[in-house]
Amino acid sequence: MDQEFKDGKDFPLFLDNNDPLGHFRQRFYLKKGTIYMSGNSLGLASIDAVEAMLNLIEKWKDEGIKIWNVDENKYLLYSSNLAKLMASVVGADPDEIAVTDSTTVNIHQGVSTFYKPTADKYKILVDDKNFPTDRYAIDSQVRLKGYEPKDAVKIVKCKGRFFDEDDFIEAMTPDVALILLPTVYYRSAQVLDMKKISDAAKERNIMIGWDLSHAVGAIEIDLKSLDIDFAIWCTYKYLNGGPGSSAGIYINRKHFHMLPGLAGWYGNKSESQFKLLQDFDHRKDANGWQLGTPHILSMAGLEGSLKLFNEAGLKNIRKKSLHITGYMMFLVDAKLTKYGFAIGNPREDEKRGGHVCLEHDESYRISLALKARGVVPDFRDPNVIRFAPIAFYTSYEEVYRIVEILLDIVKNESYKEISQKRNLVV
Ligand SMILES: Cc1ncc(COP(=O)(O)O)c(C=O)c1O
C-alpha cells in the first residue's frame, strides 16, 4: 500500500479492500453507529479476549480452589504463561517479562530496585511532559530515600513542541543515578529515540528504565537489543487486555541476581513458595519481581488479545498504523487546517506513535460535538483531541467519515451550541 493518498469517498473503500489486516476487524466488538478512536486509552474487547475471560469464570465455577492447578498450573503460573505471548511484542525473552500489578506499582518496583543513590550520584532524570503518575511515583521514591524532589529529581524541560534527545543526554551529569522516560508521549505522540538515549546512559553508568505504555502494541520494540535495565507498560491501551488489565514489567536478565525493591511471596522461587518459609528465596527471573497473588481476572483478557498480536505481527501492525494515521493527516491537511486545526504530532514516521494529535482553540467543545455524532475521541487539556485509528479494527472509511464530521462541525460552528463548562472526566 505505497500509493499516494487521494481525496474522495471511494478511496478509503479501496484501501479497506486491500488491507491485509482488515479481517481482524471481525474479531472485535464494534458498536453500530459509533466510530471508536480511543483505543490508545482503552482498547476494544475482542472475541478472543472475552472467550479467555469466560473460560476463566467457568473454571472458577467448576473448580473452586483447584483453579490454580488446572491445565498444568496454568493460572498459578499465569504471569509466565502470558509473558510467552508478550515476548514478541516487546522483543524480550519470556523470562525477562512479568505480567503483574499495575503500571504505577511497576514504576515503584523498577525505581525502588534500580535507584541506589550515593552521596555523589543520587538524582533521577525525568521530563516535564510524561503522564504524571510516573512523576508522583518518582518523587515519592526519592523522599523514601531521604531526599527532596526539588533537589534529587532533575527535570528536562521541553523547549519547543517536541523534545530533542540531545537535551536528555546533556542533562546526564555525573550526579544522575537513574533515568525514567516514556517511549511515546501520551499527548504529542512523539517517539523518543530509545537507542540513542539508552546508549548514552549506559556510557555514563546511569541506570535507565522506560515507560512503554503508549508504545506497546503500537510500535516495534526490541528491548533485547537496547539492553536497558527495566521497562514497564500498560496492557489496557493498544494491547486490548481490558479495563485495568494487569501491567507488564521487563527486567534485563543481567539483573536477575538483584533483590526486588518491593518483595512479596509471589516473587519467591516456585519450588519453595508453598513451604511458606520466613526467608525470601528470590526467584531469579522477572517473575521474582511479582508481589502477591496474581490478579487473574485482570489477566485473562490478555491471553486472548495477545494471540492476535502474535498472529498479525507487530511489523504489519505498525505498517498499517503509520499508513492509516498518515491518511488521516493527509485529510486534515487538505480539509481542516483552514478551519483552525493544527497537527500536534511529529510528521516523520519514525518519530510518531499510534495516534494523531489535533489541536484547535475550541478542542473541548469540538470533542463533545464529535461524541454527539457517534465518534469516540479523547480530549486532553488545554487544546488537544487525540484520535487513535487502530490497526486491528479501524477502517479507512471511518477515518474519512470522521474528517467529514469534523468539517461539518467547524463549518457550521455547531460546537458553539455546547456549554464551555468542563465535565470531571473528559
Ligand atoms: C505513560 C503512562 N504511564 C502510566 C499510566 C497509567 O498507569 P496505571 O495503569 O497505573 O493507571 C498511563 C496512563 O495513561 C500512562 O500514559
Automatic annotation (TrEMBL):
Listed pathway(s): Amino-acid degradation; L-kynurenine degradation; L-alanine and anthranilate from L-kynurenine: step 1/1; Cofactor biosynthesis; NAD(+) biosynthesis; quinolinate from L-kynurenine: step 2/3
Enzyme class: hydrolase
One cellular component term from this protein's GO annotations in UniProt: cytoplasm
GO molecular function: kynureninase activity; pyridoxal phosphate binding
Residues carrying N6-(pyridoxal phosphate)lysine: 237
Subunit structure as annotated in this protein's UniProt entry: Homodimer.
Name listed for the protein in its UniProt record: Kynureninase
Organism name: Euphydryas editha
